[in-house]
Amino acid sequence: MSPDGPQNITTLWSPAVWLHIRYLLHIAMICCLIVATFIDFELRIIPDGCTVPMMFFAILVSTICGQTFIVPLWFQDASVASTLRSISPDWIRPLLFSWDCLPFAMQHPHVHGLLVSIAGLIVGGGMVWMVRLAGYWVLRQEAMGFGDVILMAMIGSVIGWQPVTAVFFLAPVLAIFAAILAWITQRDREIPYGPWLSLATLLLILCWPFLWPLAERIFDMGPFVPLMGLFMFVSLVACLQLIQILKRLFGLSSRTAAASEDGGWSSADHLSYYNSERPDDQTGQWNRSNWPGSRAGQGLSNYHQWRFGRRD
Fold first, then answer.
1. H helices within the chain, ranges in order?
2. Based on the number of CB atoms within 10 Å of its own CB, is 11 exposed (0-12), middle (13-18) or buried (19 or more)?
3. Residue 259 pLDDT
């Protein structure tokens, strides 16, 4: 727990109460991550039903309790900020401000809890969205699915923007081994990324006392952190563009260009075709009892009644 964590706010809930509330909030998030993980492994999608409700629930609980955050909305080492301000160009110095968030959190705990959750939602979803945009601009293909964006937004709404940033950088370390294994065994260049975001979140929560001291050194720089994020995004776009240029120089066609020349389909095309060709999820299987509303919504209830002589 951060030294400026919720234990310093003593005017609302007793430590036993808010610790149990935060524990239940994290357990609910982990349940959603488990559901999203298995669906992403099986279908390569992350339904909004296992992320969006949890997102709004986290915002509501964070606002009402005001003490479920792991790290406050803002913290920094004043000495680090002063040092960076002294060596930075004149046009950056006004951005390197210094703000002690703890008095604000103690005076307005509910507003602070709301802001922590909203900031985590924006930063978590925004980072994945920026990678998605970079992949589309340079590679002309989907680098990350929109389900990953919503998943990270949900995670950020629970744990805050600083921990979800650590999740964003921890997940690729875990996913790289799975990507190499998938390429060696199946020659598959695409892997579902949601499970690794979920695993990184779980590891961050379980190993928080060991991982946070490493990440805290970065966040101590305060306003310099968003500037670093912007610089890293520009560097990502530049590196992807450089890779594309090198491919053209060596006569290597990108996978996207080859797919377009061969009339290849995107993942969305495959899903649309699959759903249109197989509207009944029991095609080719033994008939089993199902909720009548599911087939009625697909327009298949009369067909099943005619075929099997009864309603489910």
1. 15-43, 52-65, 78-87, 102-107, 109-139, 146-159, 161-186, 194-206, 208-219, 224-249, 255-261, 267-277, 292-298, 301-308
2. exposed
3. 47
SS3 262: coil
| pLDDT computed for residue 255 by the predictor | 53
Q: How does DSSP classify residue 263?
A: T
- Give the integer Cα–Cα distance in Å for 128 and 234: 14
For residue 139, which of 262, 242, 256 has the smallest C-alpha distance?
256
Tokens of 230: 């912007």
Assigned token pair, 34: 């488990």
Residues of the chain with confidence (pLDDT) below 50: 256-263, 311-312
Residue with tokens 């925004």: 126
Cβ(59)–Cβ(157) under 8 Å?
Answer: yes
Give the pLDDT score at 3.
Answer: 63
Residue 258 pLDDT: 46
Nearest in space to 109 (alpha carbons), one of 18, 25, 221: 18
User: What is the enclosing helix (H) or strand (E) of 260?
Assistant: helix 255-261
**What length is written for the chain?**
312
According to the model, what pLDDT value does residue 23 have?
93
| Per-residue pLDDT at 296 | 64
